[in-house]
Write a structure and sequence with these properties.
This protein is an all-alpha fold and 125 residues long. The protein has two domains: 45 residues; 47 residues. It contains two helices and no strands. Helix 1 runs antiparallel to helix 2. The protein is elongated, with a radius of gyration of 28 Å.
Length: 125
Amino acid sequence: LRLSPEVFNQLRVLQKKAREIRQDVRTLRKASQSNALQISDIVSEAAAKITAAIEKNSPSIRHGPIEAERLRLHRDEDTYRSDMARLDKDLTKTVADLKIKLPLLQEGLGNIISAEMEQAMKEKK
């Protein structure tokens, strides 16, 4: 298949735009997932605060001190689980970010090493 230079150049431009669009879609997808997780966290925290406020304002006298302590421990457990979920999410995001950065660092180091080797070979000659 033979293409004229103009068609070939247009094809190259379209390929570049397609790559950029794919990258934009990936970025938007990541942002959407991040936003969904943040909304989920916000809703969970709001629900926990509402539940705590309702429990705090309900008369615990009729339940007795043991029931009041059980409710407090239940709230503390919910807070602990929420904190653990947030930590897990943050660690997962950090690991994913580091996995993305590693190939770029490796490539950069490889380029530097290659350039230094070439320079050393030229100096040796």
